[in-house]
Amino acid sequence: MEKITQLIDRISYIFGMVAGCTMLLGVGLIVAEILVRNLLNGTLYITGEYTGYLMVSITFLGLAYTMKEKEHIRITVIHKFIKSCKKRLFIDIYANIVGLAMFLVVIIATTNLFWNSLVTESQSGQVSATYLAIPQFALPLGAVLITLQFVSEIIKLILKLRRSEFSTDVIDTD
To answer: Using one digit for the tens of pLDDT, what is the confidence trace for 27-47?
Structure first.
C-alpha cells in the first residue's frame, strides 16, 4: 500500500512541476506579447487565447500536487470540536471519499467534453484555429491525477488509523 501512495505522490509531484513549467510558459508568452507590442508595434494574436489554455492546464495539472502538499484551503471547524484523533481521522477519510466521488464525476464530464471536441474536430474561433481537444486534454488528465491523489490520501489515513499513529487520543485545541 505504501508503494502505491509513493507512486501516486511521485506522479503528483511530476505533474506539479509540469504545472509550474506551464506557468513559466504563460509568463514568457505574456512578456513576448509586451515586447512585440512595444518594440515592433505589433501583436502575437494568440496571447489571450493561449494564456487562457495555459491557466486551465496550470489549475488542473496542479490540483493533485497541491493536495499532496496539503496546500488546499481546508475548513477545520469540525476538528476544533472533536478532540479524539481517531474520530478526526474518520472525518478526514469521509471528506476524502466525498472529494474522490466528486472528481469521479468531473472525470466523466471532462472526458466527455474532450472526446466530443476530438471527434467533431472542434477548433477555436480565434486566429490560431487551435483544435480544442489539445488544450482540453488537461481537464480529464488533471481530474484523474487528483482522483488518484484522493486514493493516496485515503490509503495514508487508513494506514495511520491502523497503526494508531497519534500521540494521544485527546488533543487540546486551545
So the answer is: 999 999 999 999 999 999 999
Residue with cell 485515503: 154
Q: How far apart are the first and last CA of the chain?
A: 35
The whole-number pLDDT of residue 80 equals: 81
Residues written for the chain? 174
Tell me if residue 160 falls in helix, strand or coil. helix
Q: How far apart are CA 53 and CA 149, in angstroms?
A: 23
Q: Are 19 and 58 in contact (CB under 8 A)?
A: yes
* Residues sharing a CB contact under 8 Å with residue 90, sequence separation 6 or more, in sequence order: 161
- Report which of 148, 135, 144, 110 is spatially closest to residue 22, judged by C-alpha positions: 135
Only one residue has cell 478532540, namely 83
